[in-house]
Amino acid sequence: MAVLVVIIFASYALIEEQFIALQIYAVVSCVTLFCYWMDKRAAINGTARIPESSLHLLALFGGWPGALLAQQLLRHKTIKTPFQLVFWLSAFANIAGFLIFSSPTLRQTLFTLLA
Length: 115
What we know:
Layout (H helix, E strand, L loop, with lengths): L1 H14 L3 H27 L6 H23 L6 H22 L1 H11 L1
Helix pairs in contact: 2-3, 3-4, 4-5
């Protein structure tokens, strides 16, 4: 399911030629994956952890594909239901923001509603 969401999202970005956005997502996802790896390592070693709020912010700002990959590869943060709930809300909020701001029609509708 999660892989399907990533594929659909990436396909939309490519179809609409949002290459800069795709590059930003790739960079933020790599940073996010690295942060998950560091947090997993800290958990194993019993050292200072990365706050969950920081991981959620990275997901919200476009790092959710990297977070999703890290969760599966590292088996990290996959069981905590509250964390997963906030993670998916962050991911969907990011996708919604991307869709709104990449579509002139949706963007105009949003600005009209807010005006």
